[in-house]
Amino acid sequence: MKGIPTAIPYDVLRVGEGYGSVFERLSAQSFSKILANDPSQFNTLVALFVGVLKKIHGTEIQKGELPSFKETALDWVKFLQDYLSKEDGAKLQKMMEAIPDLPRMIHGDYHTKNVMKQGDEVLLIDMDTLSYGHPIFELAGMYLSFVGFGQLNPNGAGEFLGIPYSLSCDFFEKSLALYLGMNNPQQIEEVLRKARIIGYVRLARWSIRRHQGQELIDHCFKNIHLLMAQTDGLYF
User: Fold this and answer.
1) Considering Cα of 229, then 231, then 235, then 236, what sign does the dihedral take?
2) For residue 86, how many other CB atoms are within 10 A of its CB?
3) Are the C-beta atoms of 123 and 5 separated by less than 8 Å?
4) Taking the alpha carbons of 211, 213, 219, 225 in that order, is the dihedral positive or negative?
5) Which residues lie below 8 Å from residue 209, measured CB to CB, with a gap of 6+?
6) Are the CB atoms for 139 and 182 separated by under 8 Å?
7) Is the Cα dihedral 226, 228, 229, 234 positive or negative?
8) Tens digit of each residue's pLDDT, the chain (236 residues)
9) How many Å apart are CA 160 and CA 143, to the nearest integer?
């Protein structure tokens, strides 16, 4: 789609009460599986991972082609208003509304299980979350996948991505620095702070709706409050 390499869809089938998509069969391995089997590929995979990410975010989307990620994020904020303090709720709403609605493609679930290597070709899967918007939304989702989900349960995070939690954190850290093209840790941390806020907003809503336990919910709101006190904007 739009020049982004992905498995080719062929058909839609009725499956019970739902529907299923039929895609070409790939003879490929996910980046997670490659990392798990051969950690020495780390730097090569980081470079490929970031290269595809930049291609995604460099792809312009016409209005109406894909949903707006910002509208989705604003729905998360609306959902959380009853759980946030009045001050935090108002500030979060204002900062989210101020994020530019850029016409740039967002994958929406970009991590090493959804990036595949087939020979010398890199392919994406799970394209059902495609949307458009500011790259900060993508970075927020990446933070959750690689780091945020595992803060209270590192073993669970490792099981999800199929690689050790410490390796997933390192992969995210290196990928973020390469993507941003920054060497200054303070500059990187400033962008990361914004991504973390959006990530915790997403995780808080998910945790409440899925009844994931009070510890995780409290963890999200604590971080949202602390991080918002350190910033007045959510984009870079």
Assistant:
1) negative
2) 8
3) yes
4) positive
5) none
6) no
7) positive
8) 678 888 888 899 999 999 988 888 888 999 999 999 999 999 999 999 999 999 999 999 998 899 999 999 999 999 999 999 999 999 999 999 999 999 999 999 999 999 999 999 999 999 889 999 999 999 999 999 999 999 999 988 788 999 999 999 999 999 999 999 999 999 999 999 999 999 999 999 999 999 999 999 999 999 999 999 999 999 99
9) 14
Judged by DSSP in three states, 20 sits in strand
The residue type found at 37 is N
Inter-residue contact 112 to 30 (CB < 8 Å): yes
- The rounded distance, in Å, linking the Cα atoms of 58 and 100 is 15
Pair of tokens at residue 99:
């994020």
> Which residues lie closer than 8 Å to 210 by C-beta, 6 or more apart?
none
The label of the residue with tokens 């108002």 reads: 90
Helix (H, G, I), strand (E, B) or coil at 148: helix
Tokens 């989307």 sit at which residue?
Answer: 61
